[in-house]
Amino acid sequence: MPFIKTKNIHTTPNRSLRYICDPKKTQGGLNIVSVNCMPDARNAYEDMKQIYEYYSNRKFNEPMPKKGKARVKLIHYIQSFDPKDNISIETAQKIGLDLVREMFGEDVQAVIATHDDTGTIHNHIEINVYDLKGRHFSSDKASLKKIKKLSDEICQRYGIEPFDRENYVRQPIISGYHEWKNLKHGTSWKQQIRERIDKLITVADSFDDLRNRMEQDGFTFKDGKYICVKAPGQQRNVRLKTLGDNYTSQRIEKRIAEHKKKAFEVFVTSFYNISNGIKIKAGAYKNTSALNRTCGKYMRLYEILGQEKITTITEAESKLIATEKKYSSILQQIQELKDKIGTLETEIQASIRYFDDMSFMQRTFPKKDEDKVSVAVIKEHGFRKKEDSFVLTEQLEQHKSELAELNYQLSSAVGEIRKYKEIVDEYYLLNSGVDHISKLVREAKDRTTSEEWSNMIVKQRKEILSELESGISSPMTVMEKKLMEKIKNLRLMNVEPYEREKVIKALAVIRIDKIDSIEKARRLSVRMRSSAASVKDISKRASFLRRSRDYDDLIEVIRSIDIYPPERKTSEHKKTPPKKNNRR
């Protein structure tokens, strides 16, 4: 990925040639090649001086005039290569030489010096503005564009990727000493604005959203031909484009989109990848119902994230918080509505009693508490006859329908809370640093039913018999090889089929759980027995106990063929005390 920039040399061409031909930068002059001049600073200067003065009728080392600029003597190009290209000095020299000859022809006078002192290999190319035939060269935007295009074409011939100009971002330009001093002491307004934009890009949805967030923090924007921004306490506005190529409105939009895409890949894709990871790690258990439910759970969460366009954990947490607030609000409305319904039911009963059960004297001079309540309700609402109280019944029915709607919204909010909480919890579990996939696979294996366990053993048994018939087998551990040899010997011997099937079943169990030691088989057996003791469901307990018995049978088979012989306690012989020497 070569990058080219240019500079015109108006005065002191000898100094410029001495710089690029510095022996310390060119391995003692070995990394210098030239065209139509000598490959050292002094002689190259004399050769170029002779051609320049002959065709221009001016001095090659003329000083800077008092007014205007001096004429261009040399054109200096710098061709830098990316360290990722892993380019050698010899290849860089060839590329520089080809570039000079194809761009300026065979009559050009040029010096190409390859430097590697900065850690990045780059060519310094200096050409005389006049060639041997008097043709004049100039450096402008058109010629720079042409040489950049030619450089990319030449580099592609050498297998080097061309420079990506569309996505290239220049570093912010320091306009002067004052700005450099402020940057050094941390008091630069521009740097303060840059840092705030960089921070908000990770949370903003668009440039307008970023702008609103900055305005809330006290920054002010001014629209016009160029968008300007001013930090809190700053006196003058700053154009966004002067902050650097990375801070124009178009570039900020692009950076926000790139961050969203990256966040989506990190956050959302992790839920999709875990399903595949579980399937791979499950091995023979990959088609069990428990494992399919576990994988289905993560695929469901992945689909939810896609449907609701949740791209970051921050968005998921925001939705969870918003749903919890909604749940609390609905719960409060339900409680208020229940209180209103209770009040209305009491008032309806009081109005019925007033018009149906109470006499004129009771209405006029109420003595009982119930009568007083009924009279108070009628006076409060101003009812004259019984039909007037029917409005309370209508209000009650309306409140009951509203309560049913709120209960439905409450159940929906509960479902959403569970959904978002599950997403947040699973994300933090996946990124907790613990091997969460292994835990999920182990839990799914423990939920395998007896029927599924039998089917896996039958499937492995068929594969073992097929390997015995064909004589072709997959790579096996030491334990598997011993058991396979035992099965072959039992087939040759006239033994009971039960004995042979017992060894085949043991090998099938080893392949299902990838057991490579007797200690692992013992741990699995103990775990199955403890799981059976902790469950109340009879079918689950029977499944655990059956698998425990199968692991015990496996241990017995392994012991019988002496793969792992039982540990024998060494008998401790009592040491006879030394005879006493009675001799003095």
TrEMBL record:
<feature type="domain" description="MobA/VirD2-like nuclease">
    <location>
        <begin position="19"/>
        <end position="160"/>
    </location>
</feature>
<dbReference type="Pfam" id="PF03432">
    <property type="entry name" value="Relaxase"/>
</dbReference>
<feature type="coiled-coil region">
    <location>
        <begin position="320"/>
        <end position="347"/>
    </location>
</feature>
<protein>
    <submittedName>
        <fullName>Relaxase/Mobilisation nuclease domain-containing protein</fullName>
    </submittedName>
</protein>
<dbReference type="InterPro" id="IPR005094">
    <property type="entry name" value="Endonuclease_MobA/VirD2"/>
</dbReference>
<keyword id="KW-0175">Coiled coil</keyword>
